[in-house]
Amino acid sequence: MFNQEIDYVDAPPLAFAFDIDGVLLRGPHVIPAARRALAILEGDNPMRKKIPYILLTNGGGSSEEARCQKLTAQLGFNIHPLQFIQSHTILKTVAQDYADRPVLVLGGRNGEVRKVAEEYGFKNAYTTLDVLAWNPAVWPFHTLTPSEQQSVKSADFSRTPIAAIFVFHDPRNWALDIQIICDAIQSGGIIGATPTVQHVRPSGPRRPELFFCNGDMLWKSDFQRPRFGQGAFRVAFQAVYESLTGSKYPCVQYGKPTEATYMFAKQVLRDRFRDLYGRVSVKEPHVYMVGDNPESDVIGANAAGWSSLLVRTGVYDPRQGPPAHVPTHEVEDVLEAVTWAIEREM
Ligand code: G3P
Ligand code: MG
């Protein structure tokens, strides 16, 4: 996994990538096994070494720094932004392509995602609430709440050509967001343009480009059954768009299990090793991904050449039958995952 020229000595022979929802947290609650598992990796293990780990989540909606502060308080160990990847972190690598071009950023609450987008380098980011504030007739079934009103940025969307749409995090108002995505596509990016033909299809290169950051149909919160994730929103949008136009709209998908996100995670883990152990020689570490969702954690880790450890504390429920993708090993929880992997590497 690591670049041969960069060697490490004294580093332990393994590392971990942890999913968050359903592995470390359930909604706002810390899963009991999580703190003990992290204590082992922080040094309380037979190797008497810090075992490098990163957090790799399809969650999002706030800055990496803000989320890491919250995770540090919840888990009781310092989670550094350099060991943390959330669904939209990878968008840092594309922001410069859209630096000054108007883009729509979707998901999260009241403009929080706009702030994240601007920190990434998107200087001209708008939300669907901005569009509704510009013209309430865009979606007459929602009136901006006072806090939403405070979050909007003024713009004239009859003269703002939207170049791309980024679904950073899970949309809160699917109807409003699907309506505005379809408006932006069918108007060729200028939402307020008067349609020239019914169901206008933008001629020339597809615009706006459409990006999703998390393909999860389901995720485990603190409700008994898994909840719909951003992948369900994408399915809903594509169903509406296809009924309008006869075809699905091409889009770019990031997040687990995409190769782009796991390649990005490999670089973050490589950097984490360098931060902890510098450039000294040891054999290539073995990476264990601990996840609760076979569709994002198991299939993604297996394809990345990592070992996948599937826990029973999240989306995966053995009572529903075997997992859709076979993990390296199935465990009760994240503590069993960590102890099993360490014993295997001793
Ligand atoms: O929105 C978060 C959800 O899709 C899953 O998060 O941490 O299980 O990848 P996670
Ligand atoms: Mg999960």
TrEMBL record:
A Pfam family matched in the record: Hydrolase_like
The Gene Ontology CC terms held by the record are: mitochondrion
Enumerate the InterPro entries for this protein: CDP-alcohol_PTase-I (IPR050324), HAD-like_sf (IPR036412), HAD-SF_hydro_IIA (IPR006357), HAD-SF_hydro_IIA_CECR5 (IPR006353), HAD_sf (IPR023214)
| One GO BP | glycerophospholipid biosynthetic process
Please, which domain of life does this record's source organism belong to?
Eukaryota
Give the Gene3D superfamilies listed for this entry. Answer: HAD superfamily/HAD-like (3.40.50.1000)
NCBIfam families in the cross-refs: CECR5, HAD-SF-IIA
Under which name does UniProt file this protein?
A: HAD-superfamily subfamily IIA hydrolase
Q: Origin organism of this chain? A: Fibroporia radiculosa
